[in-house]
Please model this.
Amino acid sequence: MMRTGVCGRLAALGLLLSVLLHTTQCEKFVEPAAGKKPHIVMILVDDWGWANVGYHRQTPTDEVQTPNFDALCKQGVELDQHYAYQFCSPSRSSLMSGRLPIHVNILNAPPDIYNPKDPVSGFSAIPRNMTGIASKMKSAGYATHHVGKWDAGMATPDHTPIGRGFDSTFGYFHHDNDYYTEQIGNCMYNNKEYVNVTDLWMTTGPASDSNGTIYEEEMFKRHVLDILGNHSVDTPLFLYYAPHIAHTPLQVPDNYQQKFSFIPDEDRKIYHAMVNFLDDVIGNITQMLHERNMWNDTLIIVSSDNGGPEYAGGGANNFPLRGGKLTNWQGGVRVNAFASGGFLPESRRGTKYDGYIALADWYATFCSLAGVDKYDERALAAKLPPVDGMDMWPVLSGQNLTSPRTEIPLSPGLISGDYKILVSRMKQAGWTGPKYPNRTHPSGGINTVVNCAQTNCLFNIKDDPEERKNLAESQPDVLKQMQDRLAAWTATAFNPNRGKAWPEACQTAMEKYGGFWGPFLP
Model:
């Protein structure tokens, strides 16, 4: 691989430590997979239940009002076997880094942790030296923007969206915050008192002019529309919109609550109203793409970051799948997803695809469309796991309908071919009905537990997508094969010591940023 210019000079100077920690890697460029570079809009919805979108409802219901999501899916390719991690941060780390969660992050650790003994991986979420997808896109000439939830690191400037290659960002670092005040919990300041901290960041500093003004998702919507409205259409755009909706706290403007006042369960009512709010945002985005004459050159990918939270207070519903967020049941990891936009070949619109796709695969797919190699030299130099993502453009475009992905590790557990093995004590081991939460389960919460730790549980998820029949006893040979494959994956796991809550994070928030969370290390 040829190396020229700045990269060659750096190598000649032998600035090894600097290269290891800070420099942008040299990229190898190739012909864009589709001949030209499309605009790409990646939308990662938060805690979106399988049954909380219209196109998954065989029997329509007034409780689920998602006409814009449904229309986009109908105009595109429904991704029926699309997988994420069972909760937030690992999914987002996977999408941004191109690694399967087992090779980047399987923890929902808060962003203020730090292990000073490990300057590469001693932080929450993505290790410092993994190249983010936005850096790849930027190197290929894309304008890159992030709006919404980040939850992929905060400790140093390298861990922020800007450090990962985005030209701009407007969002928050933690798993969630309040939709109206943007506050998130509190922290111990100077070992004396707990103080409230706000989490809202604008590119390089606190968004102190924005917090506490209007409903947070409305702020994000306006920012997304400003990006689209001001973008130079001749420059390829990579826009990563990660809504707060439908993660807790369950909050939405009153006029949206009123639309669903007929729902007796409070959590279910607010959750459906939040999804409906987001559906309107999606309609605004679609309209803007058409108004700017960008639609025909745009690829839209929509996915949830995990299954819907069916535990108490979550408000979501994954009917008819088993379980939900925080579990490796299908309801926790098989997620709503589709590809849409005018850039999709006409022959692929209105189809459903049932091959496996993981969130990590969009890294390789976007690189392929941008004409840049997915290879991560900087990570290799730091002895970090390589990119796992596989190019799914041949699948989306119809060139080859066989998915290159045949296995998805679940940490712990594995999907391989038609089978799935679970090897831990499994909570939420039940099924909901079309209306959930309900009187039987007010505010949600499935208390059934199945112990798959000793004998393991085996399911054929192609024939039995609801995971109702455990095949461990009747198919011991398949069980053994799955155990062996899982052991092979487990041997490759990436598990650094990420450290603990670092007092300077709170001190920096209070003294440097005026009560806002932000990077606390150089």
